[in-house]
Each structure stands twice: as C-alpha cells, then as structure tokens.
Amino acid sequence: MSEHLQASIAKFKSKEAIIGIVGLGYVGLPLMLRYNSIGFRVLGIDIDENKVSKLNAGQSYIEHISAEKISSARQSGFTATTDFSKVDECDALILCVPTPLNKYREPDMSYVISTTNALKTYLRPGQIVSLESTTYPGTTEEELLPRVQEGGLTVGKDIFLVYSPEREDPGNPNFETRTIPKVIGGHTTACLEVGVALYEQAIDQIVQVSSTKAAEMTKLLENIHRAVNIGLVNEMKIVADRMGIDIFEVVDAAATKPFGFTAYYPGPGLGGHCIPIDPFYLTWKAREYGLHTRFIELSGEVNKAMPEYVLSKLMDGLNNSGKSLKGSKILVLGIAYKKNVDDMRESPSVEIMELIEAKGGIVSYSDPHVPVFPKMREHHFNLSSEQLTAENIASFDAVVLATDHDKFDYDLIKQFGHLIVDSRGKYRAPAEHIIKA
Fold it and tell me: Which residues belong to CATH 3.40.50.720 in the chain?
C-alpha cells in the first residue's frame, strides 16, 4: 500500500480532509451541504462570479436549497471561489460540471475538459479527482487520465481517479444526497479504495463497480431505461387517444400488477439535464464500435416529437371554436421541466412556447417556481409569470398545462379556462373544454 493511499484514506476517515467541489449547481450544492453538515471543510469552485458572490453572502440561487442552509454552511467553514489555484488546498476534487449536447446531438465535453485543464497545474500527490458529470463510457480514461498525469503524477500511486455518477432528484422529498446509493468505479483498485473512503463518510450505501467505464455505463443505463420507457408510453398515448382511450387510466390500471410492470406516465416531452441528453452519449460512443442503438434513438425521436403533438392538439382545440392559433393568446402553465422545482434545463414547455410563437400565437406563462423567464443559452423570452386569477385565466384563448406543479389551483383553471390542453393527465373527468394532449 503506497504512502499516499494510506494517508488519503486516513484523512477522509478522520474528517481532516478538505473537500473541493467544482461546479456549484443542482448536483454540487447539495453535495457541499452534505459534507459540510458532517464536519468537513468544503471549498466550492465555480467559474460563475455571480454564484460565488451569492454563496459567500449566504444566499441561494436554487429554490429547494434555502438561504439558511447556505448561511449555516458559511458559518461552519464553507467558502466559494473562482480561483482555481486554491485546488492545491483540497484533498478531494469532485467535478460536477455540465455535459450538454451540441446542436448535432453529440456530447459537448468542453466543460469537463476546460475544468480539468484548469485544475491540472495545481494537482499534487495524495489528492483524489472524482468526476460526477454524466458522460459516455471511456471519458475518465480518455480525457481525465492523461491530463491528471501530465505533470508527472501516477494515477493509482501518487494521485487517485474515480468516476461516481450523480443521482440527484430535485424536488423529490423521499430522497436526499445521503440516502441515494452511490456507484463508484476507480481507475485502479487503489483509486477505488480512496473513492470509497471519500464517499462512505457522506453516503449511506456505496456500490463498487470494477472500472470507471462500468460506472459511466451504469449512469447511462439508468437514464436510458427511463427515456425508452417514457418514449414507449408517449407513443402509446397517441395510439390510445386515436382509439378514444385515456392512457392515464390504462397506466394506473396496469400499475396494479404486482410484478413485471413499472408505471411511467406520458407528458409533453422530456426535460432536465439527464433524461433527454444521456441516451445520446451512448448512441454517439456506440458508433465508434460500429453499432447502431436503435431502441435509444427511436425513443429519442418519439420524445422529441411530443411538443409538436401538444401544439397540434392546441390548434385542433382552437379550430373547433372557430379560432386560429395566429393572434390567439395562449397561457403555458409550468415552464420548469418537472413539477415543484425551478429547474428549466431542456424543458419541453419552452419548446412549446417557441412553437406557439412561431405560428403567430401570443404566448405567456405562469410558473410559481420561475417568477421571471431566465436567461438561457438557446431560448429568449422577455416574460414574467402571470398571476392565476379568475379574470386573468379567462382573458386567454387557451391554457396549455405543461408542468403540473402542486401550487396551481386546478379547480380555478378548470372553471375559468376557455380551452385547456392537458399534457399531464391532471383532469381525468371528461369535459368539453378540456383536451388531453
């Protein structure tokens, strides 16, 4: 056992280690709070000066993480910085940076690569580097390994390298960082040992796999499983609709089977950083091996077509009451990608808004979790959330229910909405002015 291996493990077990978290978003921030709460000193590193200054002032920019929690972490030693030279103070470097797709639906590894390049100058013996960002199998070996070793450090002896995919589920009250089992794969067995020592302090259950590639593939399988099943039920929704059957009633009934069936519900498309994106990481990498991942790509096509399907239902509904979409006032309910959160990443609601606008509709939105439409890389709306009063609801030609937040008053919407296009199955009882989409 190398001296660095023993010393690193001892530091994590005694909680003397300093934890560096690079990327302070929906994944990095909960992880920071967890390590801070169990007595570790945590340093947060992010390129966004606005995020760093807010955190250092004890403020939060994520709705479900309170300012009180950030303030408490600050008082017990947490600091945030944009200065990458502070990396040499850290014993662990946990990378939680974005891995989006480019416009060709290929992995954009620029954040992972630029972050690793920014860190590599300051790496020293005894540290562990852990990548948590979703990516294709081989990323840790192909992109991180050579960069980490560039300065003469040997991975597995001087410095340790693991992949441990994030499994956050924002807005889910049943799980928190501590209670979600943590998968870890190391580049060597020594790397895995240090990785376990790092994470077992903070997470209840550690799941060891044989390599970083296996850990990377595990994350992809979890999300591809979800994307494919949602694609299936979205396709079934269209078939059921043509046959005059309520797909939500059917899924509920099928879910009473105590074995062999898991309930997935249809919607207006896929959202969030993981489910719409992760499958394409594997389809891209599989091409290198001469393989064509047909299931994954087909579900991607079905899910990608859902906003258009919602639009067609909206146009049908308006048409039935003698109106065209052009010039009609449309209210989109819920623009976060899932209920009860403020996360806008890859939200199908935004795509629906763009489709409505492209057809000449006058679009507005209401979302209690997103008071002002945020600046986004690809989408631009100069809008604020509409108040849901009886008078305001009645002023729109149609309401599109895109994200079913619990805070919405569904009875009020039903009572005063002239036309409701329901993509979430909130209104089960048939009504003339409600269209299931």
Answer: 3-210, 267-436
pTM of the model: 0.91
* Residue 432 CB-density burial (10 A; 0-12 exposed, 13-18 middle, 19+ buried): exposed
Beta strands in 291-371 (DSSP E): 329-333, 362-366
Strands 398-401, 420-422: parallel, antiparallel or unpaired by DSSP?
Answer: parallel
CATH code, 267-436: 3.40.50.720
The encoded tokens of residue 7 equal: 């010393």
Q: Answer yes or no: is pLDDT of 173 > 90.
A: no
User: 90, 96, 191, 274: which is the annotated catalytic residue?
Assistant: 274
Residue 209 near residue 185 (C-beta atoms within 8 A): yes
pLDDT for 142: 97
Confidence (pLDDT) at 375? 83
What is the overall mean pLDDT for the chain? Answer: 94
Q: What backbone torsions phi and psi does residue 48 show, to the nearest 5 degrees?
A: -85, 105
> CA-CA distance, 238 to 298, in Å (whole number)?
15
Contacts 24+ apart (CB under 8 A), 147-153: 147/113, 147/116, 147/117, 147/120, 148/116, 148/120, 148/123, 150/120, 151/120, 151/121, 151/123, 153/123, 153/124, 153/125
Task: Please give the Cα distance from 250 to 350 (Å, whole number).
Answer: 28
Which residues partner with 274 through β-bridges? none
CATH code for 3-210?
A: 3.40.50.720
Task: Output phi, psi for 320, to 5 deg.
Answer: -65, -25
**How many angstroms separate the Cα of 374 from the Cα of each of 315, 339, 383?**
27, 17, 9
What are residue 94's DSSP bridge partners?
A: 21, 130
Lowest mean pLDDT among 114-128, 279-293, 400-414: 279-293
Under a CB-based contact definition with an 8 Å cutoff, are residues 40 and 15 in contact?
yes
What's the token pair of residue 41?
């000193």
| 274 catalytic per annotation | yes
Distance CA 332, CA 349 (A): 7
Cα four-point dihedral sign 277, 221, 196, 71: positive
User: Does pLDDT of 391 surpass 80?
Assistant: yes
Residue 399 bridge partners (DSSP):
331, 420
